[in-house]
Model the fold of this input.
Amino acid sequence: MSDQSSIQEVKRPERATADTVAKLAGVSRVAVSRAFNPHASLKKEKRELILKIAKDVATRRTWRRALW
Done:
């Protein structure tokens, strides 16, 4: 393990999944699902964090595919 043990190692699948976003955000898969439903009960800060991470993961995958 590296010196930065607080950073979670996540095997990245070909496409962004709720599981991937949940692991990176440190939340449950259910919380990720709720973040994408505007009527679901979820704190604003948590929803914003999840959506930011999901967008970042999707953007990185798009750029990676474009470069290959």
Remarks:
- The CA atoms of residues 1 and 10 lie 13 Å apart.
- Helices lie at 18-25, 29-35, 44-67.
- DSSP finds three helices and no strands in the chain.
- The mean pLDDT is 79.
